Every structure is written in C-alpha cells, then in structure tokens.
Amino acid sequence: MLGNLQADMSRQGVNTSQKGCCSACDKPIVGQVITALGKTWHPEHFTCTHCSQELGTRNFFERDGKPYCEADYHNLFSPRCAYCNGPILDKCVTALEKTWHMEHFFCAQCGKQFGEDGFHEREGKPYCREDYFDMFAPKCGACNRPIMDNYISALNSQWHPDCFVCRDCKKAVQGTTFYAVEGKPVCPKCIGADDEGDDE
C-alpha cells in the first residue's frame, strides 16, 4: 500500500523518498523531518522527554541524549535559588554552599543587596557589615556601640580604645593605673589617690 501511495505521489511531482527512520517509532519518514540530537524524527514524535509536548522548531535542551522543553529542563535541572526555590536561568551567586538569584542574595536583616563590602555569615544567613556588627558584635562598655575593630578588655567589658577614659575627667587611662568605680575606669587623680604623693 505504501508503495502505491509513493508511486501516486511521485506522478504528481511530490518527492516521497524515505528520509530515514524515526528515532521514536522506528518507522520510515516521508515528508517533513526533524533532525536533532544526531537523529531523525517525525515532527509529531520529537517531543519533550518529561511532558511529551511537541517540540517542533521551538528551542529545546538536551540532557543525557534526550530532548526537553525549556520549562521542564529548567524545572528539572537548573540550580535552585536558596531564597525563592525558583530555577536560576541566568547569572547567579554561589555563597554559603547555596545558589541564589543575583537579586535574592541580600542581608537577612535589612534586605540591602551586598556591594563591595561583601557579607558576614551567622547561622547560615548572610548579613551586611552594619547589621552583623550591630546584632552580633560585643558592645562597648562606654558608648554601647558595636566593637568592629581593636578593643580593650577590662572591668569585665570590652571598650573602644577611644572610649576607655576616666569616668570623671574623660582623659585616657589606657596603659596607666586606674580604679574601678561602678564598673567604669577612674584615674588616680579623680579618685584622690594622687593627693597623697603631692603632699610629701
């Protein structure tokens, strides 16, 4: 029967020579053919491996020699954003052993995207420098602001070097003798301990 059909079509000027066998159904292809992945297919048999939708001439992706439509390929194989769990189709950030959409990698506290300062991590969450130190850094015994750099440890507290001053006269006591009054440093002069040496 196929032979008669081919002969009838040839008489009418339609070329019916076989263009290979379909990779899906293993039958000869006469007429339109799709060549993809090094194989030939009937157009209706070149379908997404996952959803079976015809791919025709649309974009497709290959994985392990099998065709996938764009949506299924990204849903099945693209890395996932740690924030929204959506597939990442373009640029991404890899940090904290996770992947993120560029716009979804931001401070867990204030929501600001990270710039050149980078980020700090606490319990698997990223924070900007300001929020990290504000939330987790030890606070100065005098001004109660976060200690971000050098500090002095004294009187069961930590102090900014510029804040470690006499409670009364506000002069630096770092590297000198001082007294502790109500958890604050007081210099010998302000406590009156200098007077004894001056009387002699």
What does this structure look like?
- Residues 20-79, 80-137, 138-197 form the LIM zinc-binding domain.
- InterPro entries: Paxillin_TGFB1I1_LIM_dom1, Znf_LIM.
- GO terms for molecular function: metal ion binding.
- It comes from Cryptolaemus montrouzieri.
- There is one protein chain.
- This protein has helices spanning 2-11, 70-77, 129-136, 188-191, 195-199; strands spanning 34-36, 39-41, 60-63, 66-69, 92-95, 98-101, 120-122, 125-127, 152-154, 157-159, 179-181, 184-186.
- With 200 residues, it is an alpha+beta fold.
- The chain has a two-stranded antiparallel sheet. It has a two-stranded antiparallel ribbon with strand order 3-4. Strands 5-6 form a two-stranded antiparallel sheet.
- A hairpin with a 2-residue loop joins β9 (152-154) and β10.
- The termini are far apart.
Task: Report the order of strands and helices.
Answer: HEEEEHEEEEHEEEEHH
Shape: rod-shaped
Average predicted local confidence, pLDDT: 85
Tell me how many strands there are. 12
* Largest sheet features: 2 strands, antiparallel
Question: Count the helices. How many?
Answer: 5
Strand content: 15-25%
Rg computed from alpha carbons, rounded to a whole number of angstroms:
38 Å
Termini, distance in Å? 132 Å
Q: How would you classify the helix and strand content by structural class?
A: alpha+beta
Strand order of the largest sheet: 1-2
Contiguous low-pLDDT stretches (5 residues minimum) are 196-200
Tell me the helix content.
Answer: 10-25%
